Structures are given as C-alpha cells and as structure tokens.
C-alpha cells in the first residue's frame, strides 16, 4: 500500500485534501429498487438464521451512506455504522431514521474505534480493504465484533487500477499493479482465518446515473487538481466505467 501513496510534491500542491468523499456517492439505494449482490446475500443468510432466535444486527465498517448495511435490513433489525467521515455517518443515520431502523454510529478509523463499537450478528465491510496497511489487525477486529459472520467485499484489483491513465495524464505518474484481492486473502489467512472466497459481478446499480454526476468532481479532488480542471477530468472518466467485478471474502465465527 505504501506504493500507492501520493508523492509529496503532488500532495503538497493539492488545493484540497484528496481523499475526502462526497457522501451521496455512497448513499444506499431505495428499498425495492435493487438486486442484492453476492456479498449482500451472504450477509443476509447469516442474519436470517439468527432471526430464528432474535432480531439480527449488522455492523457496517467504513459504512459510507450504508449501502452494505441497508441492503440487508430486513432481515437486519438494527444497523451500526463506523466511518472516518462524520458527514457519511450523518447520511447513514438519516437513512436509518427515514426507514425506521434502530441505528448507532461511531466516528473514527477502524480498528482504532473497534473497542467502542458493540458486537453485531454480522459484520460487513465493503470497498475498504485497499485503504488498510495492516490487514491482520483490521480483520481480527472485524472478527472480534461478529457473533456469526464477517463479509468483506473488494474489487479484484485496486479500484484505481482501471483509471491509472488519469495519474499518467495529469502527473506523468505510474501507479502500481499490486496489491490485489489475492494479496488480501493471503494476508487474512496469515492472520489465522480460513475465508471462503467467491467472485461475482455486481447487479445493475440504480444509483449509477446519480453517481456519475459527482464522479468528475470527486476524481478531480482525488487527483489533487483544482476545481477548474473538473471538465477535463469528467471527459476522461466518462469512457472508463468503475469496475463491477467483486470478490466476496467471508467466514463464520459461530459465537
């Protein structure tokens, strides 16, 4: 992951912090408008089994607007979210209130906030692992909070891999080809877990058109460019869609 760090000379010229994200990009889709992904189904399976005894809870680590958690509520009867951006948690809590789902939120980075977060029946973590430098500590903390199952979802390669040409175009900077999902699975196994690994393709996303409205501005910021370069960035990303391929990594805790 150190190879993905933005060089100091580029970061120093950035007019804004590059990796602050617009919450709307990560908003949960409206109920009844989407098909569950494979990762959603794996989480729902464990929650449905748990509901035979009592209501099920889901903890969404790096939750954004809560797409992973709200996709399985129901069967989840309570959602818990953690995120380092307070505005993400505001969206998460507002969505829970609109859908009348009991909710708790915890601000901060994982696993630093893990001790303050309650246990949940299922812990989900989507599209976060490529930001993690110590995967062993990260997934061990996920496992410690899950009564029944941990479900992680990531892209097969780094999510910026398909758009590496943007860094080349604006900064003449080559991005690395590692790590990959296989690297993550190896690290998880080294941490003492025996995960099930499944590959799939995401169903059509009803939020795709809405997300495209924010994509140029978001990538302009990620690239450490000033806002006036946004039209140029928007034109370049238009023909390179974000990957829909996903790897689901999960295991049962059975506590």
How does this model look, in words?
Helix 8 (208-222) crosses helix 9 (230-237). Helix content is 35%, strand content 19%. The protein has nine helices and seven strands; from the N terminus they run H-H-E-H-E-H-E-E-H-E-H-H-E-H-H-E. Strand 4, helix 5 (135-145) and strand 5 (146-154) form a beta-alpha-beta unit.
| Structural class label | alpha/beta
Radius of gyration, taken over Cα atoms and rounded to an integer in Å: 18 Å
Could you name the ranges where pLDDT drops below 50 across 5 or more consecutive residues? none
Widest beta sheet: strand line-up = 3-2-1-4-5-7-6
**What is the class in the CATH system?**
Alpha Beta
Q: What's the short version?
A:
The protein has 255 residues and is of the alpha/beta class. It has helices at 8-13, 38-50, 67-70, 86-98, 135-145, 164-171, 181-190, 208-222, 230-237, and strands spanning 56-61, 76-83, 103-107, 120-126, 146-154, 196-201, 245-252.
Describe the secondary-structure layout.
Elements: H1 8-13, H2 38-50, E1 56-61, H3 67-70, E2 76-83, H4 86-98, E3 103-107, E4 120-126, H5 135-145, E5 146-154, H6 164-171, H7 181-190, E6 196-201, H8 208-222, H9 230-237, E7 245-252
Parallel strand pairs: 1-2, 1-4, 2-3, 4-5
Antiparallel strand pairs: 5-7, 6-7
Features:
255 residues; Rossmann fold; alpha/beta
